[in-house]
Specification:
The chain is an alpha+beta fold. Helices cover 29% and strands 12% of the residues. A 5-stranded mixed sheet has the order 2-1-5-3-4, with helices on both faces. Strand 1 and strand 2 form a beta hairpin. The longest helix is centred in the middle third of the chain and has 16 residues.
């Protein structure tokens, strides 16, 4: 057993874990953070995606003991602590408490059952940060300035599966979030204050 402290969505969370415990199980079963979902438990579906140190990681394949001292962001803390967020989230200091990706998913109706949505929005936020940093993908054309066209978004989000096949709306949602984050376009109709952010873990 090991004693560790993981900073989850801005809050230090000390706990004692078996060295074999995955970050996903530590979050869900030990800390009650249920927005990361257990889908395949083999790193193939992306439903468990979180950010660790700003990087996308599959929490089902990440040992919790490796995250001692790490700053982990889930869909619940994306607006306040994720890349591209407003830094305050849903604390009454302005805005609607949503990350641009969450807002875009609502605007575009980019989910159906919602089980994969937490992983989708976290992955999209991390991916947009990677794109902003100039990281290429397998389909990036090095002969021209990169742009988030359909092929680029689909490739960069290929690790996140949607069994409801909402991809036709997910890709435009990611593109909308990219435009909103860069300030080149509005993010569309704002969600009402009573609308829950997609992927905040209401369903276990």
């Amino acid at each position: 057993m090991r004693e560790i402290t993981v900073h989850v969505d801005g809050t230090p969370r000390p706990l004692t874990v078996d060295t074999r415990t995955s970050l996903l199980d530590a979050l869900r079963e030990r800390l009650g953070v249920t927005s990361p979902k257990k889908g395949c438990d083999h790193g193939q579906c992306g439903a468990c995606t979180v950010l660790s140190g700003g990087r996308r990681v599959l929490s089902c394949l990440t040992l919790a003991v490796t995250q001692d001292g790490a700053r982990v962001v889930t869909a619940e803390g994306l607006a306040a602590h994720g890349p591209g967020g407003d830094g305050h989230g849903d604390d009454g200091r302005g805005g609607d408490g949503l990350h641009p990706v969450q807002r875009a998913f609502i605007d575009r109706d980019a989910f159906q059952c919602g089980y994969c949505t937490p992983g989708q929005v976290v992955s999209a936020a991390g991916m947009l940060d990677e794109f902003a940093r100039g990281w290429p993908s397998a389909v990036t054309d090095g002969t021209r300035p990169p742009r988030l066209d359909h092929a680029e978004v689909a490739e960069r989000m290929s690790g996140n599966l949607c069994r409801c096949a909402a991809y036709a709306a997910i890709v435009p949602a990611v593109q909308q979030a990219a435009a909103a984050s860069s300030g080149t376009a509005s993010s569309g109709a704002a969600a009402s204050s009573s609308t829950a952010a997609p992927g905040t873990g209401a369903a276990r």
